[in-house]
């Protein structure tokens, strides 16, 4: 094996002035993507953390980067006459931005506990769920918590319209907007009334050509027809034991991997190659599975008209192969299939995903197929090259990107930046046999250090 696997016993962290960013993996396709981040200052809360500045700059950011999140589709019904009397395209103080004060939890204690979920303030952990975004439910929520030694944020977006990469982009733009407003003393922002509502937006979006990637939907229908009913895993024997691992690739190793990519893969990203290795390694470790599924974040290649309302958004979509075919494919071919899908995902595909992920029946059928005892599924979320270290509200850019490894759900892998200089840390909750397959992959030979969390 080319990687060294060791036990990593959680150790206590240090303290001091620093900006800490905490980013959990998406815990489901639906209902939300979320990010938590904290600013640690044991002396005093900086003036630019004023709630009014943060709130108004957040609204202003959404106006320019994701106005769809501000659009309501709220209907007022006359009790006297019945029926529709008015449609509001926007309302003040929407979406909800909530201020909390917590004198019990501290950033200092969270640092010592590696930002485990149980160490965080309830207002941060209990981010509300979302219902159907097509029905006017909130697409975004923001909770701001003031503690005695810092400030915490919990930002969540509806998973039907956005994924973690889009979320981090919004946070980075928001930090720049807040800093600009504070420095210019522009602390009052009048929310602009939007000139569209969601109903109009969805009609316009549906006017784009139908999504090209409908193959997965057809596949689910075919599998359900062959094996109707819920064939999901039931026995304990079908739930192999998994553990959380961290696979670290230094910035220098990433550059080496980039310059030594296999023939025919010079235009394939290192992240796509690693995702391909994760996918095939998972398939090889599940020889009884008929199909192996890969869920990954995909950025929408949108038209300027669409981007005007939805910004730089991303969503989750799926690739699948028969396991025997996937196991025999060269990594280069798997990587090309992953990257080709990313480069071709259209507005029509996005509309299809939103409609599907907003239907309980679709999500139930999806679970029945991908969680079947005849299937293997892995989720890979890559945020290693996003502007995570550019989030600066005025206190400075983050000094550390913290991830509570034990919160990684089984079958999930999240690729984070190793440090400010780049590199990759892959947190994965997988079986030991999958990890052994990854460690022995030729492409990663000598470039990955593997640590197991107890």
UniProtKB/TrEMBL annotation:
Keyword Glycosyltransferase: no
Stated name of the protein: Transferase
Protein's organism: Coemansia umbellata
The keyword Signal is assigned to this record: no
Key words of the record: Transferase
Cross-referenced InterPro entries: CAT-like_dom_sf, Plant_Fungal_Acyltransferase
A Pfam family the protein falls into: Transferase
């Amino acid at each position: 094996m080319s990687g060294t696997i060791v036990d990593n016993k959680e150790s206590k962290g240090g303290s001091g002035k620093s900006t800490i960013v905490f980013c959990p993996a998406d815990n489901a396709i639906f209902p939300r993507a979320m990010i938590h981040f904290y600013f640690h200052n044991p002396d005093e809360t900086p003036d630019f953390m004023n709630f009014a500045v943060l709130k108004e700059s957040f609204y202003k950011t959404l106006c320019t980067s994701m106005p769809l999140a501000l659009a309501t589709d709220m209907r007022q019904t006359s009790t006297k006459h019945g029926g529709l009397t008015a449609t509001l395209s926007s309302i003040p103080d929407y979406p909800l931005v909530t201020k909390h004060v917590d004198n019990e939890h501290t950033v200092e204690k969270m640092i010592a506990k590696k930002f485990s979920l149980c160490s965080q303030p309830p207002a941060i952990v209990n981010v509300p769920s979302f219902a159907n975004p097509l029905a006017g439910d909130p697409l975004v929520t923001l909770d701001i918590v003031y503690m005695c030694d810092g400030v915490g944020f919990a930002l969540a977006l509806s998973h039907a319209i956005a994924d973690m990469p889009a979320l981090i982009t919004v946070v980075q733009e928001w930090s720049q907007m807040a800093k600009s407003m504070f420095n210019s003393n522009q602390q009052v922002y009048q929310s602009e009334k939007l000139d569209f509502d969601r109903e109009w937006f969805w009609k316009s979006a549906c006017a784009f050509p139908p999504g090209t990637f409908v193959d997965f939907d057809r596949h689910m229908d075919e599998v359900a027809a062959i094996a109707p009913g819920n064939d999901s895993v039931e026995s304990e024997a079908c739930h192999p034991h998994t553990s959380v691992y961290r696979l670290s690739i230094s910035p220098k190793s990433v550059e080496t991997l980039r310059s030594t990519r296999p023939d025919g893969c010079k235009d394939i990203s290192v992240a796509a190659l690693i995702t391909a290795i994760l996918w095939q390694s998972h398939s090889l470790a599940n020889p009884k599975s008929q199909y192996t599924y890969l869920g990954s974040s995909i950025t929408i290649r949108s038209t300027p008209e669409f981007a005007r309302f939805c910004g730089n958004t991303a969503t989750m979509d799926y690739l699948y192969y028969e396991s025997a075919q996937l196991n025999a494919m060269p990594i280069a071919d798997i990587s090309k299939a992953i990257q080709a899908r990313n480069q071709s995902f259209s507005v029509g595909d996005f509309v299809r995903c939103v409609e599907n992920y907003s239907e309980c029946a679709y999500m139930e059928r999806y679970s029945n197929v991908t969680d079947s005892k005849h299937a293997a599924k892995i989720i890979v979320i890559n945020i290693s090259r996003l502007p995570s270290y550019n989030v600066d509200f005025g206190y400075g850019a983050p000094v550390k990107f913290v991830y509570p490894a034990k919160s990684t759900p089984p079958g999930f892998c999240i690729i984070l930046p190793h440090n400010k200089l780049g590199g990759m840390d892959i947190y994965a909750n997988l079986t030991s046999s999958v990890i052994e397959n990854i460690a022995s992959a030729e492409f990663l030979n000598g470039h990955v250090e593997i640590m197991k969390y107890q």
